[in-house]
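Our example copied in:
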Amino acid sequence: MRLLPHLLAPLAASLLLGACATPPAVNATGDLGVVIERASGSVQIVERAPHRVLSRVEGLGDLSHASLVFSRDARFAYVFGRDGALTKVDLLEQRIVKRSLQAGNSIGGAISQDGKLVVAQNYTPGGIKVFDADTLAQLADIPAVDRDGKPSKVVGLADLPGNRFAYALFEAGEIWVVDLADPAKPAIAKYPAGQQPYDGLVSPEGRYYLAGLFGEDGIALLDTWHPEQGVKRILPGYGRGEEKLPVYKMPHLRGWAMTADRVFLPAIGHHEVLVADKRDWREIGRVKLLGQPVFAMVEPSHRRVWVNFAFPDNDKVQVVDTETLQVIATLKPGKAILHMEFSARGDEVWLSARDSDEVAVFDTRTLRETARFPSKSPSGIFFAWRANRIGM
């Protein structure tokens, strides 16, 4: 059969449109996140808009105090379980890719600047372990021992530029910085930090590493641009003259409570957040709160700090103005608020209410609730934007 020329062009266009009408399925991960369900050993893969749960992935073991980091392309989450397991979860296929029981008791981890190394920090047997991010094959095992050879729990692990990692040794009272340019030959530098460092954070550009001290009032500070200067003590004796209260829950410092010129740190055993000037690290104020702070987290806009609390005030959250240092709101989002996570641009915050079995979403401009959905004893909430941030 011979087609007339004037019929060929419409036919070709029709075939082209037909091909375009069925493009391959494409998903993006930029708006995805993971909610840890600590009691059931599962995670929820969630989408920020329109506030929905995409799936539940089960079989991750003991997830009490679990945390995670994302691969550089934000497709995979590496979940560090309290039972020492490291689990790689595919956010798009919504399944476990690989799982490795790497220690007896793990307390979190980090990922290298180039995204090739995943590092777990351990309570038992202590030390850190380094894994290939693709295969989870172990590349290095670095024990944490003091000068007498006694093992130490590792806390406050954070990634630094140049595939380096900083962390603290609780019993040994030291900060270690390890260079993993060659994981087979890790180069370790050790610095005395103070009594019982319990957690740590790195500044957003990756320069300063701070470790909170449980055994004494004060914060240990290491300038990684000038490590030869050693560790400095900042905010020394912040609790001097005040009655020390029983600590119901250790504060967490990984929340990045830093604005352009200020840092907000929960005071351990006190009902207040300490405010320091980031330029010289001297104390410039305190914010009185209703209870013992756990997380103090700055909105991405740096305009406000959100603070949650230890028992018995863990059903409340207070919002602090970063300029006036005044509490501007006290919210009650649910029972046992364990964690808060902002959207990448800070227009909303998600809060895990463990004892309500719910996740609540609040608009940060109006401070009003906009959504709520069920979750099994939720704890940590992590959005995929973390994939491109240092120290997260």
Notes: The two ends are 66 Å apart (CA to CA).
